[in-house]
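pipeline/complex-builder :: batch 7 item 3
reading input block
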Amino acid sequence: MNSTSPAVEMKDIVIEFPGVLANDHVNLTLQEGEIHALLGENGAGKSTLMNALAGLYKPASGTIRVRGELVSFNSPRDAILKGIGMVHQHFMLVPTQTVTENILLGLNEPRFVMSLNKFDQKILDLEEKYGLFVDPTTKIWQLSVGEQQRVEILKTLYRGANILIMDEPTAVLSPREIDELMETMRSMTDQGKSIIFITHKLGEVVDIADRVTVLRKGVVTAEGESMKGVTKKDLAQRMVGREVIFTVERESHELGDVVMEMTDVSALNNRGLPALKDVSLSVRSGEILGIAGVGGNGQSELAEVITGLRKCSGKIFIQGEEISNQPPIKAINRGVSHIPEDRTAVGTAPSLSLTDNTIMKGYKKHPIGDGWRINFQVAQKHTSKLKDKYNIIAPSVNTPAGKLSGGNLQKLILAREINCEPRFLVAMQPTRGLDVGAIEDIRALLLEQRSHGAAILLISEELEEVLSLSDRIAVISEGKIMGIVDSEDVDIDKIGMMMAGMQEIRE
Amino acid sequence: MISDLFSMTVLVGILASGIRLATPYLYASIGETFSQRSGVLNLGVEGQMLLGAFAAFYVALTTENLWFGVLAAIVVGGLMGLAMAFVTINLHAEQGISGIGFYLFGLGLSDLLFQKMLGTVETVKGFPKVHIPVLSDIPVVGEIFFRQNVLVYIALALVPLAWFVLNKTTLGLKIRAVGENPEAADSLGVSVARIRYFTVVLGGIMSGVAGASLSIALLNVFQQNLTSGLGFIAVALVYFGAWRPWGVLAGALLFSLINSLQLWVQVLGIPIPSDIAVMMPYILTILVLVLTVSRVRPPSALTKSFERGD
């Protein structure tokens, strides 16, 4: 061991999955006490690389050194023993157990019989040291997302980790929680920890990182560059390989009549707890109403009550007809289209063909169906027309939908939902997990519907997306609409406050 | 005649035999509780019980040592558990279907062995009743609780022990974590496969002993399909007990008391058609399951096989 060696040195790492080269001779060096950003698009291979460092995957070739010592991890345990802790994007917590139980899981101490009180205190001491406060005796499912993340961090610190890997830690947080997290990260590096911070958000890299490594399609395009003298634009180019347009062209036009109106709508979530509280909204023809908010604040339930998938109190009207608490077919017949949050579980039947998926909504309509029979020749022709029109890349119309990439699958759903010329479109997280090219296509399609006079409810956790597409923005927090602002005079700080649950303050 | 049911002797008899009848359920259900808490649904309990019952009976008959019989049931049940673990954990077979397979295997094999090795129904002298000094002399209570065979005492003692292990030890924490979120457990260096092997083999052993408690303590015979659905009820009791040992105890007692009641109804010749009487416990199981459903969520990873990186 050598005190001048870097904390971690990964060299020529190659990781292959069937058909994909996830990491192609990747190098990454983490210095002691620094915050090192690992930047890249979805699917660039960031998480894969870090999973190798955390002992979850074994690289096909390449070497990993921790403080100069050559290591080879067969399991997460090996990595933990070398002081490496990973805070996963999808929290690795047991919801039915307490904070303390989650932290103690898998440790050699206590040996067999557990008296939790003693350990609760130890954990409180650790919380004090890093300013990560959360009640050790609470069960995980009772905690907010931000608190759950603190438990994840505490878990690694309790194990004595001095190298922390944080996989997109800000994705689920409100702006205020993000600030707190950044403070915690600073206090951790002040106390000698080194941090690798995975993200695809440029702003955060600029805010907090000391150095940055950029990955694109499994290849390093910037290796450990100091943040001094690097511009956002430069990083973006390294990340996507071409110039990125940061703004969307949105023509202003006259709005039409109110298409969707909801008054005092409340609903429960799957746990039976209130998810929507007295929500009143209206959307006019040719208008995009954006719903901004941190995930899990009632967005899913909002989309579901409008499309007839969830019971609610209050009233929802589409073009004057009440559709609340009616079966989904009623909403569909009134011209409601739905781009659901979950593309494979709700949006499509993945093992059925493109054709089956595109006619799923219009199978009764002439000429595809005559009420009880389906004319498959017509259906296939119809599908191949859509496939060309919406530029869906697939071997044939008989390919199972599940074989398509995320972007193409989303285009397939949009093709089905838009082709019936909706009066009202509910789009839930329409670009989540897609690459930049597909995101641009999807956004353009939404704007096209807007200029055709559709009313659109755009629900997205990407604040930037809501801001660039919407005519008006409603902020949701804990099931309540905190305020509605015009996109012409947006104050980001104000929206951030509302997302964190603070009511609009009027001077 | 109905009034006969309410005489003191009969009531004591119903309660005492109710507790006795609860033993096979207790062994099997506590074992199954451990498997299910770790995320493995073992539907093969019935088959494991049948083989355990046969092994215990045959060994007890030939060696004239009841404890060798119990040991044989432990070995056979453990081996069945090992096979189930291999198929579901290493080969990722669908748990429900492979469980049914193991049930049919146990049913067929125990009958085959019975035909080849015994041929006719014989009896053994099973575990005698053990009168606990002093306590068994307490009127009523002593008769109900403290004049039972040794397997009954062990079964009852297992309930608090199982509770303690599941809730107050690191092993229990690992079992519960593996059953709720195997990815989380894995990321902290807990071997999901090892924990599940442990619980499934334990479940097999307990099912084997459950079978032994039937063939060499309760009925003292072996015949084709001796268990007649008891193992499946044991699985249902785990749901009824909401995956908690004390809940399982309550379910096992409720169920066996009804069973004991219906036996006494027949013994006393109360004019209820025997078919209806025999159906009572089963109807009760269905009713209870319907009424208690959704009260507590099952372990989240129940029936889901685990592979790193999924």
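note: The first helix of chain A runs from residue 46 to 53.
queue -> next item
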